Amino acid sequence: MTTTPEYEDYGDETCDIYSTVKFGQIFNTVFFSIVVALSVFGNSLVIAVLVKYENLKSITNAFILNLTISDLLFTAGLPFWVYYYVQDKWTLGETACKTVNFIFYVGFYSSGFLLILMTIHCYIAVDLGHDGKRNGYSVRSRRSRMTLTSVTSGEEMSV
């Protein structure tokens, strides 16, 4: 089989997987490091402001505090992923692998769950009015507000 002059053999320079993997290691390391630094700084600042200046018995502030904590849990797993990308293998043992993944995914899924709860709360506040009444029936009773607050904050609050 002969080749035409337009399609000469250029070698394997376009399929050099080593340089692609090396770029991914460097990019992920830098990107995750920036995300960790900004996340720790920003979420710590939010916690400091909430604790010092805000009423933590407010359901909105409870949502924000819990969302901040779940973001920090998510962030706690990222340095281990950086370590994994740099080493190109997991050397910390199976227990550490399971623990890091558990913390990472708890932070990831709890953030999504809290955003869903915040959306439901916003819907109730906007669509049903501040008192949560539609057609004379109370949608947000004291008991349901206390339950929602307790679930999201981890402690019982008076509403």
TrEMBL record:
The keyword Glycoprotein does not apply. The keyword Transmembrane helix applies. Its main location: membrane. InterPro entries: CCR1-9-like, Chemokine_rcpt, GPCR_Rhodpsn, GPCR_Rhodpsn_7TM. The chain crosses the membrane at residues 30-51, 63-82, 102-126. It comes from the Eukaryota. Residues 42-159 form the G-protein coupled receptors family 1 profile domain. It is a multi-pass membrane protein. It holds the Pfam family 7tm_1. SUPFAM superfamilies: Family A G protein-coupled receptor-like (SSF81321). One of its GO terms (cellular component) is external side of plasma membrane. It is found in: Cell membrane. GO terms for biological process: calcium-mediated signaling; cell chemotaxis; immune response; positive regulation of cytosolic calcium ion concentration. Keywords: Cell membrane, G-protein coupled receptor, Membrane, Receptor, Transducer, Transmembrane, Transmembrane helix. This is G-protein coupled receptors family 1 profile domain-containing protein. It comes from Mugilogobius chulae (yellowstripe goby). The lineage of its organism: Eukaryota, Metazoa, Chordata, Craniata, Vertebrata.
